[in-house]
Amino acid sequence: MVAERTLQDIWAKTGKPHLHIMNTSRLVSMLLCISSAASAVVITLGPSTQTVTFTGTAVSASAAGTSRISWGSCVYDGKQTTCTVSGPYTGLGQGGTYSYVLVYPGNGASPLGAVSSPPGNDLIYYTLTAGTLTFTITPTGGIPVRFYDLTSQLFFNPSNDFCTGVSTCSVGAVGLSSGGTITGVQNGTFDTTPVINAGGVVTATDYGGFKTIAPATFIEIYGLNLSTTLYLDWSSAFNGLQAPTSLGGTTATVGGLPAYVELASPHQVNLLVPSGVALGQQQVIVSTAGGSSLATTVTVNAIAPGILAPGVFKSAAGQYAFALFPDNKTYVLPPSVVPSLPTNRAKPGDVIILYGLGFGPVSPNLTAGTLVEQSNQLSSFQAAFAGVQANVQFAGLVQTYTGLYQFNIVVPNIPASDTTPFTFTINGVAGAQSLLMAIGN
Questions:
Q1: Phi, psi of 333 (to 5 degrees)
Q2: 360 and 288 assigned to the same domain
Q3: Residues 83, 102 contacting (CB under 8 angstroms)
Q4: Coil, strand, or helix at residue 27?
Q5: In this predicted model, what pLDDT tens digit does every residue of 205-236 receive, in sequence order?
């Protein structure tokens, strides 16, 4: 039998250090006027110590009022400029201080802008053409906590702001002008609560990305302010054999039970669902130092089986499964799919290795969240190539990991084809993925 392999071995061949890929996108514009009425924690931002100036740059080609923003107090260190707007906050714990920090390369004009649409509207969103703008609170007697999604409302105070070059002193009027300004301190609110996107809970994307989840499988959660750290994974957070239930202050529950946190970032959290979660409709909640999200309801089935099939293994012909030869370095793929990888077509009689999630209990029964140390077996797993049943030499959980299944399969006697359908069943139920395998002769 081909030896089981660790997850680190698997990903060492593709340069990916974690179980599934983090999906990220860069926000070009940051809306500073988003606030969920149902959110649990909205802090009040007192008047800023520094002033902010909007300078009108006239109506844009897209018929929106625009301004360039000089952001608080700025310091240039010879490489980059750091600008700060800060003040006191209340409404979370004993309060403390807040700061918005803009950092951009060089010491030129501020890359921070404002857009009002329709022109003249005082409700604006901020745009950032370079650098970063982050928000941090420092609780009284505590340590700083950073938020990467700017879910806030900021205001000028009419009693102490002043304008030049416009007849009406307002943000909207300045945006209509060319060179008009409004200057003053800022105050407002900030929603620190984590937000789970609608439909933002799925099983691991590279293993099918199903909306229905299962106990002891990995899920991905997408949203805003899901973590107050930019990126953390569980690789160094195990307590002996036990996976962590908190990363950088991010925790989560599924069906009321603490889940194991594999990855924490502001827009994505990956969890290993605990084995004891009840079937049916269950709630998922993410919590941080900023509060707890509203519950998102998901359906939990006994299994949610998916074979590893990363997006980079997709071609015009279809999606190929992640399959390896026993040399642990050659992939079962046509050479054109990923030219940078060593590939070969599998022949009848070859043993190939696949991986999966969500296939249900093994024998002996092992609990999710604890690294597997013993031999085990998954019953009732069957595989087929072009409808021809294959011999499954091994099916079970990978030792030295948790929640990850390995399948050692003998290719049956079938004709050569680069688009051979690969299918599987568990407990007689067919998997939902459409997968291909490259077969030679």
A1: -150, 155
A2: no
A3: yes
A4: coil
A5: 999 999 999 999 999 999 999 999 999 999 99
